[in-house]
Design a protein that fits this description.
This protein is α+β, with helices and mostly antiparallel strands. The protein has one domain. Helix content is 20%, strand content 36%. It has four helices and 13 strands. The strands form four sheets. Strands 1, 6, 9, 10 and 13 form a five-stranded mixed beta sheet that branches. A hairpin with a 2-residue loop joins β7 and β8. The longest helix has 12 residues.
Length: 158
């Protein structure tokens, strides 16, 4: 469970502007939560999404009221069976939760197993979330979570 908490985070990159949800430089704005300081996942998020989005950091010094998105911690253990064979592993996934709670542009991070990566992206894409808010307005944010696939003998037996 502690490793899941390590991955369950909202990410966010530059001081918050008053234009919540606005476009800057012709790109949609997405927020990255770096209130607890920049980490490896934050840097990866900024790098992955900066070409298509204006990534705006929400920092500890910001006076704006920020509430992170909800619904990320509900995954638990997942069972993946292909032709009766269980596939197990852990997949960290990064994605954007738009201002209506829909996931966009999910990416599996550091995953060499394409089957698990595809299953994790499908699972993330099939859910809806409660979007983050800034000054009580829903905003798009970058989020990351880790999904664990486990072999449950009872569920995978033919």
């Amino acid at each position: 469970m502690n490793s899941l908490r390590h991955y369950v985070c909202c990410l966010a990159a530059t001081i918050v502007t008053p234009l919540v949800g606005a476009q800057e430089h012709g790109k949609p704005v997405v927020y990255l939560d770096v209130r607890s300081g920049w980490n490896e996942i934050d840097r990866e998020a900024e790098k992955r999404y900066r070409s298509n989005y204006d990534v705006v950091a929400i920092q500890r010094s910001s006076s704006d009221r920020f509430t992170p998105p909800r619904g990320l911690a509900k995954y638990g253990l997942n069972v993946l069976s292909l032709n009766g064979i269980c596939v197990a592993g852990r997949v960290p996934v990064m994605f954007i939760i738009d201002s209506s709670g829909r996931p966009e542009n999910p990416v599996a991070l550091h995953e060499s197993n394409a089957v698990l990566a595809a299953a994790a992206i499908d699972l993330i894409s099939s859910r809806s979330y409660i979007p983050a808010t800034l000054n009580n307005e829903p905003i798009a944010t970058i989020a990351a979570t880790g999904l664990t696939f486990s072999c449950d003998v009872k569920k995978t037996r033919p």
